[in-house]
Amino acid sequence: MSEVRVAIHGAGGRMGRRLVALASQDSGLQIAAAIDAATHPSLGQDAGMLAGVSALGLPLTADWPDGIEVVIDFSSPAGCMSAIEKCLQKRIPLVVATTGLSGEQIAALQSAAHLIPICWAPNMSLAVNLTMRLAQQAARALKLVPQGADVEIIERHHRYKEDSPSGTALKFGELIAGEMGLDKHVHGREGQVGARGRDEIGYHAVRTGDDPGQHTIIFGMLGETIELRVAASSRDCYAQGALAAAKFLVKKPVGMFNMFDVLGLD
User: Fold this and answer.
1) From first to last of its 266 residues, what are the pLDDT tens digits of the chain?
2) Whole domain around residue 182: which residue ranges?
3) Domains identified in the chain, total number
4) Nearest partner of 79 among 37, 136, 27, 43, judged by Cα
5) pTM more than 0.70
6) Could you give the residue numbers annotated as active site?
7) Domain shared by 162 and 215, yes or no
8) Residues 171, 225: one domain?
9) Are 42 and 99 in contact (CB under 8 A)?
C-alpha cells in the first residue's frame, strides 16, 4: 500500500505539531506539507524540529504545494475557512478537526462537501465516538422509562479552551436529544431557577489546568443513575483519530463523512 501524501494545516500549533510528530512515524503516511498562516512566527523552520522529532527537511510554510492527496485542518475557525477555500480550489479531500465553528462556518463546510470529500467531527477520538454510540443506545432505551430520565452533561477542558460548552458535549446532547425527543438545552444554572424541567438537557463546562478533555453523561432516574465517562490522558488520541480519518477519506467520493463512518459504526 502506497503512502498517503497528507498536508497538516495549522502545523505550527499545539495539535498541529502533534500531528506532524505522529504522522512522521506512520508508515502509511507521508507529510507532503506543513502549513500555517503567513504571520506565524516559526515560518521557515523545520516542521519536524518544531514538533520535537527529527528534522524532516520540510519547512513550516504558508504555501500549498502540488501533490497533496488529503489535508487535515487543526487550526482555528478562521484558519479552517481558509483551508476549505484552498481545498475547493485544488479539489483536495479535507479532514476538519478544528472546533468552535460558528453556524455560518458550519454552513460553508457543508456546502463545500458538495464538491469535495470532507470528514468532520467535533471530536476525533476513538473512545469518544464509541461512547457517543453508547449514549445513543442508552437514550433510546431510557426514553421508555415511565418516570423519565434526566440528562446532564459535564465537560472538563484546559484553561486555554475558548469555546464553551465543548463541541463534543453539544454533539452528545444532539444525539441524545434525537433519541429522547428533548428540545431544551440549558447551559449552567444559577439562582432560583425552579424545579428541573423534564424536557431539557443540562450542560456544565469546567476549565482547569491542562486537562486534555473529559466528558461525563449522566442519566438520572428515580432510584438509580447511569454515568458514561470518557477521558483523554493526552491529546494524541485526537491526532491519531485525525490521521485515521485522513487515510479513510483519501479515496472517498464527494460528500460529508464523520468518525462513525471512519470507525464503521454506521
Assistant:
1) 579 999 999 999 999 999 999 999 999 999 999 999 999 999 999 999 999 999 999 999 999 999 999 999 999 999 999 999 999 999 999 999 998 889 999 999 999 999 999 999 888 999 999 999 999 999 999 998 888 899 999 999 999 998 899 989 999 999 999 999 999 999 999 899 899 988 999 999 999 999 999 999 999 999 999 999 999 999 899 999 999 999 999 989 999 999 999 999 87
2) 126-231
3) 2
4) 37
5) yes
6) 157, 161
7) yes
8) yes
9) no
Statement to judge: residues 54 and 139 lie in one domain: no
The CATH number of whichever domain residue 173 belongs to comes to: 3.30.360.10
- Phi-psi category of residue 10: left, alpha or beta, with phi > 0 → left and psi -120 to 50 → alpha: left
Is the preceding omega at residue 212 within 30 degrees of 0, hence cis? no
Task: Please give the Cα distance from 240 to 235 (Å, whole number).
Answer: 9
Containing H/E element for 200?
Answer: strand 200-207
C-alpha cell at 28: 502509511
Does 145 lie in the same domain as 17?
no
